[in-house]
């Protein structure tokens, strides 16, 4: 008879997320993960096969939590002006950094790292970023200041916002000066659709 598992899988994935988020994929060694999760090497291999498989589970969990939260924020109809939703998403990142959280975005870190040579990780990253892009599109459609944009232009600005979001979170993780991060968010006002800015 097989022995019952001695730890909760969901809790283990959540703890592994904290390790990967803090150290990155490459920077998270097996001992780091074992210590962070609180399990033995044998238990990790039995439950998750290997570090890569565990990371894929962590990315899926991150999408369920952080990406879904951002998408819900950008598509929240209780805030009528979509541009207000966009700005508060970015200013929320700034507020998080100001509190001392420089971990950035786990998905963004994956996009800049292991996604470059792992098709399965890349697929998860691209799916998540596509959800973000579509949420930005919805916010722009609901933005009076962007009402003159064509569908193609809305998609272009949404793509620019995704790139800006990834860049902001990545720069936050890289310990970029806080003032530079603040300026980058203020620069959103100069994207197409802003007063005085031609598309």
Number of strands: 0
> Low-confidence segments, ≥5 residues, pLDDT <50?
none
> How would you describe the shape?
elongated
Helical amount among residues, as a percent range?
Answer: 55-70%
**Range of strand content:** under 5%
Indicate the mean pLDDT.
Answer: 89
Please write the string of helix (H) and strand (E) elements. HHHHHHHHH
The secondary structure category is mainly alpha
Distance between the termini: 68 Å
Compact description:
The protein is mainly alpha-helical and 199 residues long. Helix content is 67%, strand content 0%.
Secondary-structure blueprint of this entry?
Elements: H1 9-23, H2 30-37, H3 41-48, H4 51-74, H5 82-98, H6 106-112, H7 119-141, H8 151-173, H9 178-186
Word description of this protein:
The chain is about 65% helix and about 0% strand. It is elongated, with a radius of gyration of 19 Å. With about 200 residues, it is mainly alpha-helical. About 30% of the residues are buried. It has 9 helices and no strands. The mean pLDDT is about 90. The protein starts with 8 loop residues before the first helix and ends in a 13-residue tail after the last helix. The longest helix is centred in the N-terminal third of the chain and has 24 residues.
């Amino acid at each position: 008879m097989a022995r019952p598992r001695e730890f909760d899988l969901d809790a283990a994935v959540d703890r592994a997320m904290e390790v990967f988020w803090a150290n990155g994929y490459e920077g998270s060694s097996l001992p780091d993960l074992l210590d962070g999760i609180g399990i033995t090497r044998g238990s990790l291999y039995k439950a998750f096969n290997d570090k890569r498989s565990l990371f894929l589970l962590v990315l899926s969990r991150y999408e369920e939590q952080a990406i879904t939260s951002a998408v819900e924020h950008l598509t929240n109809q209780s805030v009528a002006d979509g541009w207000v939703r966009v700005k508060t998403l970015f200013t929320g990142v700034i507020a998080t950094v100001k509190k001392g959280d420089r971990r950035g975005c786990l998905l963004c870190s994956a996009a800049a790292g292991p996604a470059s040579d792992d098709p399965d990780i890349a697929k998860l990253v691209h799916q998540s970023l596509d959800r973000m892009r579509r949420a930005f599109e919805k916010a722009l459609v609901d933005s009076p200041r962007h009402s003159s944009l064509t569908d193609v232009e809305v998609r272009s600005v949404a793509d620019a916002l995704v790139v800006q979001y990834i860049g902001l979170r990545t720069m936050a993780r890289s310990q970029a000066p806080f003032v530079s991060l603040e300026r980058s968010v203020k620069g959103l006002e100069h994207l197409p659709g802003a007063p005085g800015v031609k598309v």
